Predict the structure.
Amino acid sequence: MSVVVGVVTFPGSLDDRDAMRAVRRCGGTAIRLWHADDSLYGVDAVILPGGFSYGDYLRCGAIARFAPVMEAVADAARGGMPVLGICNGFQILCEAHLLPGALVRNEHLHFRTRDQRLRIESVSSAWTNAFTPGQEIVIPVKNGEGRYVADAKTLDALEAENRVIARYVDGNPNGSLRDIAGIRNEAGNVVGLMPHPEHAIEALTGPSLDGQGFFHSLFRHLAGAGAAAAR
Amino acid sequence: MARVVVDVMLKPEILDPQGQAVASALPRFGVTGVTSVRVGKRIEIEFAGTPDLEQARLIADKLLANPVIETYTVRLEDEADGARSQATTAGAAA
C-alpha cells in the first residue's frame, strides 16, 4: 500500500499543491489537511509546505504554530511520525519548538529566488536517508526570511550530533549561520529545510530531479519502520 | 481605557539588517553621527476590564516575542506615552 502523506494548508500557504503533486509523482498518496482540523486522519507523515501562513504577520510561522492542526502535528512528531517543514514549514517547526533556533530576515534584505546547490550532510533522518553523505544536489531556494540563527551552543550541538542535514554551497543565499539550509530533531523524524525539494521533481519544471530524494527517503524510512515493527 | 504596551526587540547579538538599512539611509538627508539603529515592534493591548499584566506577559511570551531571537518588556501605558503621541502628531503637522 502506498504511503499516505498529509500536506497542511494554512491560510496563505503557497506550495501545498506542489508538495502534494511531488508526493504523488514520487509514488505516494497525498491528502490535504486543513489548518483548522484537529485530526491527522491516520496519515503516515506530514508536510508543512512553503508560503506565507497568516500573511507572515508578527513573525513567520508565529501564528500558524497555534493553528488547531499543529497540536496534532506536534503530538505525532513527538511520537516519531515523519514531519517535513519546507521554507515557511521550517519556520513553523521552529516557532513550535519542534526544532531549535529561528529563521530571520535575510542578511541582505532581498528576497532571493534561485537554483541552489546544497551538500547533504546528514543522511540519518526520515527525509534524507536515500542520499549519500556529502552528496551535492541542486534545488530551488526562494525566501525573504531564511537566515537560520541559533546561539553558538545550539549550533555546536547540532553539528556534534550530526543534525545539520544540508548546507548551502556555492554561495549562501541568506546569511544563514554556518551555511545551514536544513536541520533535524534528535530522533531524525522531524526535518526543517529552507530550499524546496517539491520544485525539483521533474525535468519540465525543475532544475534537477534531486528533490525526489527527500520523498524516496520517506518511503524507505517508512518501509524500514514497517519491517522493524513486523519483526 | 488603560492599555498594556509590549515592546519587542531583537536580542543585541541578533543581526538587524532592517536597522542597518535605516542607519545607512540617514546620511542621504544629512544626518551624521548615528552609530546604530535597531528596529523593534510595539504592540498595544486593550483588555475588557482592568488591564491584566500577568495575562499580557503570557501573550508576550507565547506569541508576541520569540525568546530565541527577541526580548520583550510589558508595561501599562503611562502619561508619557500620551504626551509622546501628541508630540508626534504636532511634529507631523508642522
